[in-house]
Structure formats: structure tokens, C-alpha cells
């Protein structure tokens, strides 16, 4: 991908998506993969990248990035499962001590 950076004589231009002297845009790939993992469609991902970064990305590019994961996803789905998985259920009630003390003081003050 060729990046055309405008001339800036005072060095005030700060690119948002691809930083100065950056040759790797794998961070964008990771963001695309993260959004895809959260269930977003390629169109939604494309729209989100446009809204946030002003970066116009085709749905085909997004598909190419997410296709890199398909082999890992299939491998994970076909992994052998354990016979037993331990599960712990924890339940708790939180009482505010200050509120309970105030209630007790109010009750005691009425007697």
C-alpha cells in the first residue's frame, strides 16, 4: 500500500491511522479482527473505521484480514474437549455498613 503524506513545512501534521515513519499497519488488522470477533459484519466494520479514523476500507479488504483467522477458528472448534470442567458459582450480598448503622441509630432513637 502506498501512503501519500502531504508536505508540511512546520511539521504540524500528525496522521491518525498510520503514524509517521510507520510501515506496518497491523494495529488496524487487530482492530478489524477484534470487531469481527464481537460479531460485527464487514459492512459495519468498514463504516466504523470510516467514522472513527476517516479510513475508507473496502469490505473485500476486511474479508481478507478476517480470512486469516479461519484456520485458527476451525482448529479451535475441532480441538478435543476435556471430560470434566469445574464450575464455581459464587453468590454474594453487599450491605452498606453505614446505611445499616444509620437505620439502627434511627430505630434506637425512637425508643
What would your notes on this structure say?
It is a single chain. Helix 2 packs across helix 3. The protein has 111 residues and is mostly helical. It is built from 4 helices and no strands. It has one domain (26-105).
Give a topology summary.
Blueprint (H helix, E strand, L loop, with lengths): L25 H12 L4 H12 L5 H19 L19 H14 L1
Helix pairs in contact: 1-3, 2-3
Please tag this protein with its features.
111 residues; 4 helices; 0% strand; mainly alpha
Give the overall shape. Answer: flat
When the domains are counted, the total is 1
SSE order, one letter for each helix or strand:
HHHH
- Kindly report the average pLDDT value: 79
Proportion of beta-strand residues: under 5%
Find the structural class using helix and strand composition: mainly alpha
Distance between the termini: 81 Å
What gyration radius follows from the Cα positions, in whole Å?
27 Å
- The DSSP helix count reads 4
Biggest β-sheet: count, sense, barrel? none
The portion of residues assigned to helices is 40-55%
In total, the number of strands is 0
Which stretches of 5+ consecutive residues score pLDDT under 50? none
